[in-house]
Structures are given as C-alpha cells and as structure tokens.
# Entry
Amino acid sequence: MSTEDQGMTHDELMTLPVAVPLETANRALHLGRTTGYHLARTGRYPVRVLRHGRAYKVSRYDLHRHLGVTVDASADGGA
# Structure
C-alpha cells in the first residue's frame, strides 16, 4: 500500500509545519499525485494553494480547516 492510500493520522496532521508541500497536502486529502497537481494547476484544489516559484504549498491552517481538525488548546501550549 502506498503512502497516498494511507492518508494521515490525527497526530501527523497536528505536527505539520505552517506550510506543507503539495504532496503532503495530497496525502492528507487522500489525493493522488497527478490529481493533486492537476487540481492545483487548474485552480480547483480543495484548499488555497500558495505558489513559491515553481513549488506549490498549502497552509496548515487551511488544511486543518478543510478537514475539520481542531487544535486542543492544552496541546498548543495554551495559546
């Protein structure tokens, strides 16, 4: 089974950096590589995509919001 088929666990989602590469977001959203890049290029990706040169990035905030992931205040240092 490939990593694309596995998706991400809640713990993995919670430890993502502020901006993640499109391939990481694809995994979280259960999208294949080709489909994810096609959606990003055509402006139809499920969340906002940021361009940095030739690279695509997705913000952790947008990804969490789309997936309905909530941050536990105690796990976030009480912020």
